[in-house]
Amino acid sequence: MTKFHHITKAIATGAIAVLVSTSFAAAEQGGKYWTPTDGQSVLHRTSHARQYVAKQTATRKRPAFARMDHQATTKKRDHHLILQVNTNDPAAMNLALNNAANVAQYYKDAGEKVKIEVVTFGPGLHMLREDTSPVKARLEEMALSTPEVSFKACGNTQEKMQKIENKDIPIVRQAEVVKSGVVHVMELQEMGWAYVKP
């Protein structure tokens, strides 16, 4: 019986050794098993497999870093920003204009393109009204100095103001009227534009 125990222990130990070495070989090859079919010794095949795995790992890593570096230096993204103004507050209007100027300058210095739309609706339409805008002079100056910035006035708000005030609501020439300011913001966001409410 003792001899039988020794034999089974030896067989079990051998089987465990084969399983462990097979697991290590599989791990070295990324989970792929190999068998020596072309007459090469197991030792030679193992060292060849290690070299192959090392080369594949290095090759996989290198192009990813190279692509990242290449994209960063050659392809610059276009950036898009919506600034919303919906209050008749000169401080909020000036803050939106400051933000627009700062963002435009940042990307100009970085050598990247940016498009910025200041969208007004509700009481914020006063920002773009010819007759009530407290920032009219800044709008004129910005239109000349910062072409990356455009201004959109809500047509729905303009119509409501016309009914309430019983007169035409003139919009500054630097602005374009869109049907709905809120819908315009939504559609730009759906296209990936960043949104900020100063």
Share of helix, binned: 55-70%
The tally of helices reads 6
> What are the secondary-structure elements, in order, as H or E?
HHEHEHEHEHE
Structural class estimated from helices and strands: alpha/beta
* Major beta sheet summary: 5 strands, parallel
Percent of residues in β-strands = 5-15%
Describe the structure.
The chain is an alpha/beta fold. It contains six helices and five strands. It has helices at residues 2-28, 42-74, 90-110, 136-145, 155-165, 181-190, and strands at residues 78-85, 113-120, 149-154, 175-178, 194-196. Strands 4-3-2-1-5 form a five-stranded parallel beta sheet, with helices on both faces. The longest helix is centred in the N-terminal third of the chain and has 33 residues, at 42-74. The relative contact order is 0.11.
Descriptive terms for the model:
198 residues; alpha/beta
Strands, helices and their partners?
Layout: H1 2-28, H2 42-74, E1 78-85, H3 90-110, E2 113-120, H4 136-145, E3 149-154, H5 155-165, E4 175-178, H6 181-190, E5 194-196
Parallel strand pairs: 1-2, 1-5, 2-3, 3-4
In short:
This protein has 6 helices and 5 strands; from the N terminus they run ααβαβαβαβαβ. It is an alpha/beta fold. The longest helix has 33 residues.
